[in-house]
Write a structure and sequence with these properties.
Length: about 475
């Protein structure tokens, strides 16, 4: 065992229900440690994920949660000074680390590290690449920001030489404000795209771009940067990369691109080209142009790692996607309810465009909760007025935890509804998930597609809506 965990038996995680923290809890448990954790926001799927593994979740934060005293405390990046467990850890001088520090020293060092980065598409791309490696018999370890259906987990510690990790540009911890992905010892980086996000920690887009520059600057010369060529910012930042560049995208200038794309109800087919030459036809059970790009990124990386064309085709065909990425939560009265993690305007637009391409003759309902630190802010006011273009009906929920933001900084939902109506869209805002269910259930018709988007639990709206539809 590495020095960082020498003599450690009991590890306590503060903020355990975040996707990455819950995954780390499972990984540490798999290593044989006693793991406990605490959090204030406890909801599926991560709460269920932890409970199924017998990992104790303590509600809220309290100094008493550190009794008996753990050997090590891992502090999540959503936790700050003033948290009772953080203060007790510092007062009692209990050893503490960040999640990325533990990942780096305990799980990644010694492996071939593939970091999947970018503003959008990280989870799906990382899950798809992991499955390509797994289906080829390479047994990769991985950590991604969602539950990969092929594995029914968000992590695995395995004996293969590869570690695939979703590389987040969010900060590491209150005591380490650098991006998490700088800890992950990248041999290869997939850089999908780059937009302004995380408005709570990045003052402007220049700061976001600088974080990615720092990541690209630590890829070794013998490694590779798999770069999304459809994104102008990625192309610009990649120009200064000190390593090999392998480009992908729908732009014909990319080394890896796709043509003859066909969107079907259950899958997408495309012809892959390498440097303009036919490299084979593939089918992947995903929807939307953005997922063609994700597939090309995984394909280019898998090829670099030595996978054959046939192995990649088999992996694509048997991929089962990720929970909360256009996941069908159920169907009732002929109405399909989807769950999606989209919370950035670009992701919302891409998700709705994918549904529209799959179901061009059906009515599409977009139900959105502004919950993320960026979505709740006015910084994307204009973009939100345009990103719902592929929805016939737009239903907004009140901003999550509005008291945490100055009113001048908050997204103006009344203005957003007015702007959407001026564009001819049916748009409404309701204060709670329960009221949304009561208002829209009587209006839904057989064949409708309801796309519910939030980066949180949204007060169980999916199950509540399906239950209400079953009663009618």
């Amino acid at each position: 065992m590495v020095d960082i965990l020498r003599g450690v038996r009991h590890i306590h995680l503060v903020g355990i229900c975040g996707t990455a923290m819950a995954s780390l809890a499972g990984m540490l448990q798999q290593k044989g440690f006693r793991v406990t954790g605490s959090d204030r926001n406890v909801y599926p799927p991560m709460s269920t994920f932890l409970q199924d593994r017998g990992i104790a979740i303590l509600e809220g934060f309290s100094e008493s949660h550190l009794s008996p005293r753990p050997d090590l405390v891992v502090i999540g990046n959503a936790v700050s000074r003033g948290n009772p467990e953080v203060e007790a850890t510092l007062d009692e001088k209990i050893p503490y680390r960040s999640l990325p520090e533990i990942l780096k020293e305990v799980f990644i060092r010694g492996k071939t590290s593939v970091v999947v980065a970018g503003t959008h598409g990280k989870t799906t791309t990382a899950a798809l690449l992991t499955w390509l490696l797994e289906s080829a018999g390479l047994r990769p370890s991985f950590l991604i920001g969602g539950i990969a259906r092929n594995f029914n987990t968000s992590f695995r510690v395995a004996d293969g030489e590869h570690f695939v990790i979703e590389g987040d540009e969010y900060d590491t911890a209150f005591f380490d404000k650098g991006p998490k992905f700088l800890h992950y010892l990248p041999d290869l980086v997939i850089f999908n795209n780059c937009e302004y996000d995380h408005a709570d920690i990045y003052p402007d887009f220049s700061a976001v771009k600088q974080s990615f520059r720092r990541l690209l600057n630590i890829v070794p010369s013998k490694g590779a940067l798999i770069a999304g060529w459809d994104d102008e910012v990625v192309r610009t930042l990649s120009a200064d990369s000190p390593t090999n560049i392998i480009s992908f995208g729908l732009d014909r200038a990319a080394q890896w691109t796709a043509t003859s794309i066909r969107f079907l109800e259950q899958s997408t087919c495309f012809q892959a080209l390498q440097d303009g030459e036919d490299w084979g036809r593939f089918e992947v059970p995903l929807a939307g142009s953005f997922n063609v790009r994700n597939a090309l990124a995984a394909l280019a990386c898998a090829h670099r790692l030595g996978l054959s064309r046939d192995a990649i085709a088999r992996g694509f065909g048997s991929f089962q996607s990720v929970k909360r990425r256009l996941e069908i939560r159920g169907e009732a009265a002929g109405i399909t309810v989807f769950d999606d993690f989209a919370h950035h305007p670009t992701a919302i637009a891409a998700t709705l465009a994918a549904v529209r391409k799959q179901f061009p003759r059906n009515r599409v309902w977009a139900v959105f909760e502004p919950r993320s630190a960026t979505a709740r802010r006015r910084v994307f006011q204009r973009q939100f007025s345009r990103c719902f273009a592929n929805a016939d009906h737009v239903i907004l929920c009140s901003i999550f935890a509005p008291e945490k933001l100055d009113p001048e900084l908050r997204l103006d939902l009344d203005r957003l509804v007015r702007d959407l109506r001026k564009q001819g869209q049916d748009a409404h805002c309701f204060p709670t998930a329960g009221e949304i269910v009561q208002q829209i259930a009587p209006r839904l018709q057989k064949g409708d597609k309801v796309v519910i988007m939030s980066n949180g639990g949204f007060d169980g709206i999916h199950a509540r809506l399906l239950s209400e539809l079953d009663r009618n």
